[in-house]
Amino acid sequence: MSGAAWHARIECGGAVSGAGFLVAPRTVLTCAHVVQDREWAPLTVSFPNRRDLGGLTATVAVHGGWAGGWTDPGDLAVLELDREVPLRPARFAPPGAEQGGAHLVAYGFPEGYGEGVQARYRAVSRTLIADEWLQLEAASAHGQPLAGGFSGAALALPDDRVVGMVVQASDEAGVRIGRMLPTEVMARYWYDLGALVPAAEADTPAASGLLHALVRRAEAAGVDCRPDQLYRDAAGPFAPDPPAGGFPSLREAAAYVQWQVDDPEVVPRFADRLRALLEPRPPVPARPAAWAPIVVELERSGEGQEQVTVRVSAYREGQRRPVGVERLPRGDVRAYVQQRVDDAFGHLAQDAEALLTFVLPREWLNEPVAHWECGPEDATPLGCAHPLVVTDRSRHRSARLRHQLAGRWRALERGPGKAVLHRVDCGSAERPLSLRKRLRDADAGLAGFGAPPAAAPEHFEAGVNFPVPVLLWPRTGCASTDHAGPCAGSAFLDALGPQVAGVPPAELPRRIWHLREEAAATDPDGHWARDVQLLWDDPRCYPEPPASLHTPVA
């Protein structure tokens, strides 16, 4: 049996009208104009390399919408045969494989060649004409031109993998150009084709088929997939931007991932996220039920100090759901966070208590995120509207430190359930290693600093890297350089101690929230708690492995 027996001849009314090719046991692709007379003439498909199969009656199952003019788009028809044929269907190459001067072979049926003849052409460039066609030119000055009877023929690489279909041929002598529909354009008019075409050389039709099956399941189930956000979470901040106005449907987003993004890992990531929406995993029993985190992660994008990558996600039933990811100038971060945090609440259960968690680079841990307004029409500080904590990005991603933290949280719960405040006074002369030993010997669960991290970086790093589950400090610190007597930092710790004494560590975000509300309501400029910063990090509230923080799954 010929390996390319899938080449088909199309007859409409007893005369050869064009070519086609088998893509499934009962499915043949051809041009819509090849079968334009189907309403009053019988439509027959035969396979020249398998004459024993004879002519098979066919009907048009899908029409691409071609309106009848040579420059009208959608010149595609999907034919359904009256029975299956025992032939191996055509295989497809990934989009773009026709470039680089590759010779493309078409099998057509011009007048006088009922058994067929072949022509060799190549694509002029990757640029689409009118966003529809690629231009073809003859591979040599001699040989068979693309005359009538080639319309609908597959254009195949030397290894017989198909890259597109001939849609315009010329009957004029000496004309040696034509046009083709590449596979990614054909898939616009017949969505099922995308399941047969690999997205990249490393991809397989099975991977593309899985993606399309998931899309169909999501459409049938009516799942709210937020196509733009699903694309951004799978593709990452450095992928091509979505089309202007976003994706009108999940189907368009999946096609864009498959045809427009060069990264071969994006298709499986997109499929994984879509599958997570369709097949949510059971809740993680180790996660404390008290909080429903909304996570805002900031990091430098690698394009300079002023470029920031922002990721926002929400947890529901122990699973992380993506809300937004964007690379922005630093000055635009606050507005973006306001919008996406608001969106994140739509992912939480109605009875869940949100915990806003800002995952920040260590040098940004003192950022006044608790003072950011809720939105352009609500000036309430986020830290007064909701429990809000920060955590160190490197600690949040370190498997070693997260393992240690989880153990310390369990130890706190097995103990009296209340944390003792271990003070690190403003201007302390204690050596960092001595502080680390003190915190370790005391099994410290809560450390209070009289100054912000930049004022005592070595002491602060001892608390972060030990690690202590909960750290507190005043953002504005102390203006005094002589700490021999009372100072603002000591006054802060003196006031803080009674407020956290006896409070279970898991409840501290709520307690600090109430203190922020009190400060804003009574003395927004002079209250000791007006600038309190809380680093609170229970890994069990964020059950994903650290690596997934780069690409959060829904």
Walk me through the structure.
- The protein is α+β, with helices and mostly antiparallel strands and 554 residues long.
- It is 25% helix and 25% strand.
- The protein has a six-stranded antiparallel β-barrel with strand order 1-2-3-6-5-4.
- Strand 8 (104-108) and strand 9 form a beta hairpin.
- Helix 2 packs parallel to helix 5 (266-278), helix 3 packs parallel to helix 4 and helix 3 packs across helix 5.
Q: Total number of helical segments?
A: 13
> Which regions are unreliable across 5 or more consecutive residues at pLDDT < 50?
282-289, 545-554
What percentage of the residues does DSSP assign to strands (E)? Answer: 25-35%
Distance between the termini: 47 Å
Please estimate the helix content.
Answer: 25-40%
What's the gyration radius in Å? Answer: 32 Å
Give the number of DSSP strands: 24
Mean pLDDT: 85
| Structural class based on helices, strands and sheet pairing | alpha+beta
Give the SSE map.
Elements: E1 7-12, E2 16-24, E3 27-30, E4 43-46, E5 56-63, E6 77-81, E7 91-92, E8 104-108, E9 117-123, E10 134-138, E11 154-156, E12 161-168, E13 177-182, H1 183-189, H2 205-221, H3 227-235, H4 250-260, H5 266-278, E14 292-300, E15 307-316, E16 319-329, H6 333-344, E17 354-360, E18 373-375, E19 378-381, H7 382-385, E20 388-392, H8 393-397, H9 399-414, E21 421-424, H10 432-441, E22 446-449, H11 457-465, E23 470-474, H12 488-500, H13 508-522, E24 532-536
Helix pairs in contact: 2-4, 2-5, 3-4, 3-5, 10-11
